Each structure stands twice: as structure tokens, then as C-alpha cells.
Amino acid sequence: MSDQILNRVAASSLVTFDLEDHYQEGIREVLDIKPLLEQELILREKPFREFIKTHDWSFYTGKHVAIHCSSDAIVPVWAFMLVATALEPFARTIVYGDLEKLEEKLFFNSLAKVDWSAFAGSKVVVKGCSRVRVPESVFVEVTTRLKPVVSSLMFGEACSAVPVFKKK
Fold first, then answer.
1. pLDDT value of residue 12
2. pTM score, two decimals?
3. What are the backbone dihedrals phi and psi of residue 95, each rounded to the nearest 5 degrees, phi first?
4. Nearest-CA neighbor of 70 among 121, 105, 35?
5. What per-residue string of b and e applies to 61-88 under the rule 16 or more CB within 10 Å gives b?
6. Cβ contacts of residue 72 below 8 Å, gap of 6+?
7. Residue 120: C-alpha distances to residues 124, 147, 148 (Å)
8. What is the mean pLDDT of each run of 10 residues along the chain (168 residues)?
């Protein structure tokens, strides 16, 4: 009898899909237009356009930017379009929404480049723990991409995975 310890996880045919590999590096910024509103409720076109014209947009160079309004004001869509137009030459990524929406967009952009057919017939574990925050919507996206091609899908770690799907 051998005293050798066998690592059954390493010897298994499980493939780990680590969402951390799809995290896009870079500084995230939120541009909240609430301070530009009169009494944090009313958007006045002339001062808003003046801000767009005079603001130093180079601050956002190479950054991932989420544009939103944290007040309950009704802001016309064209206001967000003006901000996006001003940001476009500088920002790396621009989304309407909060930081969660920004992270979703960044992950979704990365996942759109994955060759999902490479997982055909595999037993895949979507890694649950990560050094970066992964929005729940990204796990849902990965599930819908992997389910049609894998033989089984699990969540967690190879040593303690939770079954999600198994092809019959």
C-alpha cells in the first residue's frame, strides 16, 4: 500500500472558470450630475451647457466612468448624452448608471470575447471567491453562456462545489 497522498481535485477533469480573470483593471469614477442641478432638482440648460463647455474632462482620461444622478430629479436624456459626448474623447468606458452597472458592463465586454465552445462537454466550476467584487448579474450571464455547451456546471471551489446544472 502506498503512502502517497492523491489530490483528487487536481486529478479530476473539472475546469475552473475564474471571473477574476475577466476583471478589467483601471480606475472607476462616478460622475454624479446632482450638484449641477438647481436645488438638486431642476436642470437649467444654459448653466449645464456652460459646465459641459468649461469642465476639465481630461481628469477622466483612461478611466471607466459611470454617469448618474443621485437625486430623484427628472433629468432629460439629452443631459446624459451631453456628458457622454464630453467624456468620449477621454474615458476608456462610459455607462449610464452606478458603479454596479459599470462593473457589469466591464465584465460583459470581457465575457463577449470568450470562446464558449472551448468548454464543450466539460465539467465546469464557476469560481465563487474572488479578490474583486463580481456582480450577481455576471454569474447569471456566465451561466447562460456555459449551460448550452457544458456537461455539468457547478459553483464554488472544486473541493466543495454546488451543482447548478447537469446534462442528462
1. 59
2. 0.84
3. -135, 155
4. 35
5. eebbbbbbbeeebebeeebbebbbebbe
6. 41
7. 10, 10, 8
8. 51 84 96 93 94 97 97 94 98 97 97 96 92 94 97 89 90
